[in-house]
Amino acid sequence: MGLRAISQETWKKRRKRLEIRFSFEDLKVWQKSIDFAEGVIRLVDTLETPRQHFRLVEQLEAASTSVAMNIAEGKGRQPTKEFIQFLYIAREAHCLK
Protein backbone atom coordinates (compact mmCIF):
# COMPACT_ATOMS: atom_id res chain seq x y z
CA MET A 1 0.00 0.00 0.00
CA GLY A 2 1.80 3.10 -1.22
CA LEU A 3 1.28 6.76 -0.60
CA ARG A 4 -1.42 8.22 -2.70
CA ALA A 5 -0.95 11.59 -4.36
CA ILE A 6 -3.56 14.19 -3.49
CA SER A 7 -4.21 17.52 -5.11
CA GLN A 8 -3.05 20.78 -3.55
CA GLU A 9 -6.68 21.82 -3.09
CA THR A 10 -7.54 18.64 -1.20
CA TRP A 11 -4.46 19.05 0.97
CA LYS A 12 -5.39 22.67 1.79
CA LYS A 13 -8.92 21.62 2.79
CA ARG A 14 -7.62 18.86 5.07
CA ARG A 15 -5.02 21.14 6.61
CA LYS A 16 -7.63 23.84 7.20
CA ARG A 17 -9.77 21.38 9.19
CA LEU A 18 -6.80 20.48 11.40
CA GLU A 19 -5.84 24.04 12.28
CA ILE A 20 -6.77 25.51 15.62
CA ARG A 21 -9.63 27.80 14.82
CA PHE A 22 -10.05 30.61 17.29
CA SER A 23 -9.10 34.19 17.64
CA PHE A 24 -6.94 35.41 20.49
CA GLU A 25 -9.76 37.87 21.20
CA ASP A 26 -11.92 34.89 22.23
CA LEU A 27 -9.54 34.01 25.06
CA LYS A 28 -10.77 35.15 28.48
CA VAL A 29 -7.20 35.82 29.60
CA TRP A 30 -6.74 38.24 26.68
CA GLN A 31 -10.05 39.99 27.44
CA LYS A 32 -9.13 40.35 31.11
CA SER A 33 -5.66 41.63 30.26
CA ILE A 34 -7.21 44.29 28.00
CA ASP A 35 -9.62 45.32 30.79
CA PHE A 36 -6.67 45.55 33.17
CA ALA A 37 -4.59 47.62 30.73
CA GLU A 38 -7.48 50.00 30.06
CA GLY A 39 -7.97 50.45 33.80
CA VAL A 40 -4.28 51.22 34.32
CA ILE A 41 -4.25 53.72 31.46
CA ARG A 42 -7.40 55.45 32.79
CA LEU A 43 -5.76 55.66 36.22
CA VAL A 44 -2.50 57.00 34.78
CA ASP A 45 -4.44 59.68 32.89
CA THR A 46 -5.74 61.02 36.21
CA LEU A 47 -2.30 61.25 37.85
CA GLU A 48 -0.73 64.63 38.40
CA THR A 49 2.93 63.66 38.32
CA PRO A 50 6.06 65.76 38.12
CA ARG A 51 8.07 65.61 34.92
CA GLN A 52 10.76 63.36 36.44
CA HIS A 53 8.20 60.53 36.85
CA PHE A 54 7.17 60.52 33.20
CA ARG A 55 9.39 57.53 32.32
CA LEU A 56 7.98 55.54 35.23
CA VAL A 57 4.44 56.22 33.98
CA GLU A 58 5.43 55.07 30.48
CA GLN A 59 6.85 51.84 31.91
CA LEU A 60 3.66 51.25 33.89
CA GLU A 61 1.54 51.62 30.76
CA ALA A 62 3.85 49.32 28.76
CA ALA A 63 3.85 46.66 31.47
CA SER A 64 0.07 46.71 31.74
CA THR A 65 -0.33 45.99 28.02
CA SER A 66 2.41 43.36 27.74
CA VAL A 67 0.23 40.31 28.51
CA ALA A 68 -2.36 41.13 25.85
CA MET A 69 0.33 42.03 23.31
CA ASN A 70 2.24 38.76 23.85
CA ILE A 71 -0.94 36.73 23.37
CA ALA A 72 -1.82 38.63 20.19
CA GLU A 73 1.71 38.33 18.79
CA GLY A 74 1.87 34.64 19.59
CA LYS A 75 -1.42 33.93 17.83
CA GLY A 76 0.00 35.54 14.71
CA ARG A 77 2.65 32.83 14.58
CA GLN A 78 1.82 29.78 12.52
CA PRO A 79 2.95 26.76 14.54
CA THR A 80 0.87 26.03 17.63
CA LYS A 81 4.06 25.33 19.57
CA GLU A 82 5.26 28.89 18.94
CA PHE A 83 1.89 30.31 20.06
CA ILE A 84 2.12 28.30 23.28
CA GLN A 85 5.59 29.77 23.88
CA PHE A 86 4.11 33.28 23.65
CA LEU A 87 1.43 32.28 26.17
CA TYR A 88 4.23 31.26 28.56
CA ILE A 89 5.92 34.64 27.97
CA ALA A 90 2.63 36.42 28.71
CA ARG A 91 2.21 34.41 31.91
CA GLU A 92 5.75 35.21 33.02
CA ALA A 93 5.26 38.91 32.28
CA HIS A 94 2.17 38.88 34.47
CA CYS A 95 3.89 37.00 37.28
CA LEU A 96 6.82 39.41 37.40
CA LYS A 97 4.63 42.45 38.05
Rough shape?
elongated
The major beta sheet can be summarized as: none
> Could you tell me how far the N terminus lies from the C terminus, measured between alpha carbons in angstroms?
57 Å
| Structural class category | mainly alpha
The fraction of residues assigned to DSSP E strands is under 5%
Uncertain ranges: none
What is the number of independent domains? 1
Number of strands: 0
- Helicity range: over 70%
Rg from alpha-carbon coordinates = 20 Å
What does this entry look like structurally?
With 97 residues, this protein is mostly helical. 70% of the residues lie in helices and 0% in strands. The protein has helices spanning 8-18, 28-46, 54-75, 80-95. It is elongated and about 65 Å long. It starts with 7 loop residues before the first helix and ends with a helix.
Write the layout of secondary structure elements.
Elements: H1 8-18, H2 28-46, H3 54-75, H4 80-95
Helix pairs in contact: 2-3, 3-4
Q: Could you list some keywords that capture this structure?
A:
97 residues; mainly alpha; 4 helices; 70% helix
Kindly summarize this structure in a few lines.
With 97 residues, the protein is mostly helical. It has helices at residues 8-18, 28-46, 54-75, 80-95.
